[in-house]
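Students often ask what a holo structure prediction actually looks like on paper. The answer is less mysterious than it sounds. You provide the chain, you provide the ligand, and the output is a string of discrete structure tokens encoding the 3D arrangement of the protein together with zinc ion.
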Amino acid sequence: MQLPAVEVSQSPEDKFREYLASRSRPQRYTGQQRDMVRYIFAQHNHFDAEQLIDDLKRDGYSVSRATVYRTLNKLVDAGLLRRLELGPRMFYEHDYGYPQHEHMYCQKCGKVIEFQNPAIEAVIRNVCREHNFQSGGHSFIIRGTCTECNQARVSKRRLDLV
Ligand SMILES: [Zn+2]
Ligand SMILES: [Zn+2]
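The corresponding structure tokens follow.
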């Protein structure tokens, strides 16, 4: 499931290149970084660094582990990705060009469900206004058990009763 994209003026690659060039010590946009940015932005996903390293390797890219970790940090800093603390590991997802949304995380199967809810957004806006707080983003994660895992548990219990 993917939410509809948000119109953005620049491609993720251009935005990242601009970010690297705007550093106090400008950095070069390397081939490995280009491969990573293209790979990550080909599809909206919730992924962790280890998963990304495995996927890149499987698809024949040679990107070093250190580069993956370093580049993920830069992509977050550049506003292209955001971090998500779903479980014990850190996950990443597109922020640039993707609408504001919240998450439900199934602790049994690891499924991530995205949803949008105007009432939650309104509450956050109001709370920030009350505290005269300028929001730079938020994370709202509901952890628990998804429908499929719930049903599996219920039918197992029924079998146990038979
Ligand atoms: Zn589940
Ligand atoms: Zn998401």
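The radius of gyration is 19 Å.
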